[in-house]
Write a structure and sequence with these properties.
five-stranded mixed sheet; mainly beta
Amino acid sequence: MSPRRARRLAPVAVLAAPLLAAAPAGAEDLPLDAIDVAGGRNREVAAPGLNLATPARSGSRLGLTPLETPASLDVISGETIRARGQNTVEEAVTQNAVGITSVAAPGNGNLSFASRGFVGPSSVQQLYDGTRLYVGVGTVTFPFDTWSAERIEVLRGPASVLYGEGAIGGIINVVPKKPVFTALGEARAAIGSDGVARLALDSGGPVGEDLAYRINLSGNRADGWVKPDGDFRNLALSAAMTWQVTPDLSVTLSHDLGYNEPTRYWGSPLVGNRVPDRLRFINYNIRDSQIAWFDNWTQLRTEWNPSADITVRNTAYRLSTERHWRDVEQYTYQPATGLIGRSDYIEILHHEEQIGNRLDATLRSSLFGFKTTTVVGFDVNYIAFRRDSNAPFGGESTVDPFNPVPGTFINVAGTRTDIVSRTRQASVFAENRLELSPQLALVTGVRYDAPTVAVSRPLAGSRFEKTFDSTSFRVGAVYTPVPDFALYAQYATAADPLGSLITTSVPQAQFQLATGEQVEAGAKGLFDGGRGEWTVAAYHIAKDNLLSPIPDRPTEVAQVGSQSSRGVEVALAYQLSDAWRIEANTALLRARYDSFSQNTDAGLVSFAGKVPVDVPQRVTNVWLSYAFAPGWVARLGVNDVGPVFSDFANTVKRPAYTLVNATLDWQVTPTSRLSLRGYNLTDQIYAVSGNTNSWLLGRPRSVELAYHVVF
């Protein structure tokens, strides 16, 4: 064993701290929330599996279950996520949801995803507790930790009818734990290779007869697997208080905080078409690099049920975000000298505030003798954003590939304010479910969105203000010929910004939003008395009005580009026996640019027929668990991702990879568990994201030991 590998594995031999969680003997993957402890616990949570019969609000505001929703919706329970050792939102989504892959990098906040052939936060929207996070310059940094998540819901396919522009590929909604009126407590501690250390606490319960609280606190740190400066640390706090004013009226005030200093690693340079093993653990960033993100989210939620047929909800919220990057971000191997060229010395600061309110009312009634449920509401937001940077990001240096001298930051232009934007957004929406018979229901929805964006660029002396309005709708039908089996079909439209909406560039402001439409059909069901669940979906999505150069005037652009994707997705969850359980899903797609060109050194080049950048054509997840003895559970997970291209011409390919993860749990007492976790057990070198010069690699083989207790 190499000294470096020995150092990475050494912390695992230390068993001094209490550490993580899993299921009781004979009930693999049963959430810890379901364990009976002193005082009792009775809160309702999502279960292991596909949760087809669990009400969810991400695919509809009507409170439908996935079985009743004419769309593809994953509901991943928080306890399943934590039992599988998935500490980040990125891991939880990509290793559990169907067909979702990560293109994480420090520049996008390590939270950027691809779904159904569409990539990035302007096409795969991210929400917290049902509220969208407006994206500045392609970056989302909150939430990142899964400890406080009750569940994560993933809607695949266009969601503009629910959440506005920027969701043609789908949405990812992290739903936090809520206050409860039954006392509970959980704690976790963990240590692992590369100096990993984790601590977490969850506490909740009543405060008198009408008040309940919930507090979740988690912190993580590590020395990191790249050297030097590969360390990271973060802290997440979620606190909420519910006041049950009357039996029909409740008010919940919550505050969430996230502080994150991620690994200051921007990738490893390619030599030829790969990253040599000798360069895998070397960080080429500067000595005084810095990355820090600080997010605060405050929310006041009110729910009123004046009768059994009427529900009124109002959510007021404020998000503030502060971000700072100071790095050298591009690394290129130079064959002539054998050195690594470094460029793009970048300093950027984001200052963002989002203030908004959403009000909706649900009415349950009948129409010509048919049961019907209708939701109507409005959404308003104000977003203030400022970016300070040292654009145009000059500075260059070269370093030895094996013994780099980090050096310090080179700030050629100086850091100044270069983007100031103000966005005022207002929308109205409506959704309806009409039961034509006990077996057939129609689900329809419409939304009109009118964000007005004002952007000034002081350094360029330019400014514009424009309203990017859009109308989206969905028409779907669900047919249930027998209980626990549903056939569905839907047609939906969507709108996507040409970049990040609130930081739209001056050239982009000349055009309207890109538009898209999807046709989807599928089937879902439960079998074997609910021990098994399955889904099948087929879809076709077309996105139009992409910016593309005009052939006879290559310095000008027109809104004539288009891309499309079509695919099939399958998911299965089955409790094979009291000891064995399997959960698996796969997504196969064909994504293409249909009409798209770019200016290159060789002139105007058409990329029609090429695969979009960062889009794999296959994704498969499998989790197999085995309760092989009383108090013992083993899990094995496989995450297989097909190859992707880093350039429009499809000449630079990042290879496919298969990650193998595993956990071994021992139920020490009825309320505590010891867990050993292994990640990337085959120690595969793989790229999470990258460009034509370098790959940002995923972590190597690593292990953690954790102890989890409920009280």
